[in-house]
Amino acid sequence: MAHCPELTSGGNKVVEEVVANIDIMPTVLEAAAASGPSGLPGRSFLPLLRNEKTPWRDSLLYEYYWERNFPQTPTVHALRESQYKYVHVYGHWDVDELYDLQADPMETTNLIFSREHQPIVRRMNQQLFATLDQTGGMYIPLFPDRGQQNDLRNPKGSKAAQFPPELVHLPTKKPIHS
């Protein structure tokens, strides 16, 4: 949400492009007519607020790497586009996720096993790994320990999530040979 009538016109506006938190600092710096450090990963979205035609990203990469201090949180990579969000989880059941952000903005229905969405899953998976390869994200970093390890569990806390039924395969009975 942005409000600055001195820099934009037309009242409320919904920006359809993929804007992220990394774009806030460059935007505030441009609005203040100040320069920032070189190499910032984001871009000012003031041109989008002003309805100016400007080239913009089609997707945004999200990366979170497992930390020893928080062992219950796996490594996660996600690719977010204007309509879909693809999440690739490494180290926690390895169940990926796909959400249609236009039909399901609260991300309550995982479409990863939907037959009709498989072409989107394949495309976004390939794009995710191509982006990770281009940005050096194919290597999981090893960070030194910092702070206390958060591995304690509250017995009154939430229970474990149900295992996805699409991944449950019962063993087949094999004949017993004597």
Offer a few descriptive terms.
178 residues, alpha+beta, Arylsulfatase, C-terminal domain, four-stranded antiparallel β-sheet, 3 helices
Radius of gyration: 22 Å
The total count of strands amounts to 4
Question: On the 0-100 scale, what is the average pLDDT?
Answer: 85
In the CATH scheme, what's the topology name of the domain at 60-135?
Arylsulfatase, C-terminal domain
Name the structural class.
alpha+beta
User: Based on CA inertia axes, which overall geometry fits?
Assistant: globular
Q: Name the CATH architecture of the domain at 60-135.
A: 2-Layer Sandwich
Q: What distance separates the N and C termini?
A: 73 Å
Largest sheet: 4 strands, antiparallel
Low-confidence stretches: none
Element-by-element helix/strand order: HHEEEEH
Helix residue percentage: 10-25%
Question: β content, as a range?
Answer: 5-15%
| Highest-level CATH class of the domain at 60-135 | Alpha Beta
**How many helices?**
3
Numbering strands along the chain, what is their spatial order in the largest sheet?
Answer: 1-2-3-4
